[in-house]
Amino acid sequence: MNLNHINIVVQDVNKAVNLFINHLGFSLIVNRNSKMAVLEKDHNFALVVWGQELNHKENMPEYPENFHIGFYQKDEQAVWNIYEKLKTEADLQFESEPKKIRNTFGFYFFFEKLMIEISLNPFKDTVT
Q: In the chain, how many H helices and how many E strands?
């Protein structure tokens, strides 16, 4: 069994699409009038970006405490490269620069109120 997709809810679909395409390596399948978009990563995983207005709400979407999505990188340099690119984006908030976290190396940032983790896979043998 494979994970097919994850649906995230955001206020600004176009900004989310830009983030995931330009910084996290996704490609766009469809953007439906900036209200909902479907992106793809490596032809085997889809990310559905659902605009808050489709929920008939105007407020920023809320996520439970500690809810986040994460993306593993091949090495520490890849983590640093993404961090350096992302920190130029005005709308993102960072907890810290890349560092040792738990049993891995990485960092967290927020797009709107969605926490995203960029790190090494702590369950594989990696050089840190």
A: 2, 9
CATH number of 5-53: 3.10.180.10
Structure tokens at 78: 């890849």
Q: Which residue has the tokens 């990696």?
A: 126
* Among candidate residues 106, 108, 98, the one with its CA nearest the CA of residue 126: 106
Task: Encode pLDDT of 70-121 as tens digits.
Answer: 999 999 999 999 999 999 998 999 989 999 998 899 999 999 999 999 999 9
| Percent composition of the chain: helix, strand, coil (DSSP 3-state, to 5) | 20, 40, 40
Q: Under CATH, which number does the domain 68-120 receive?
A: 3.10.180.10
Taking the whole predicted model, whether its pTM rises above 0.85 is answered as yes
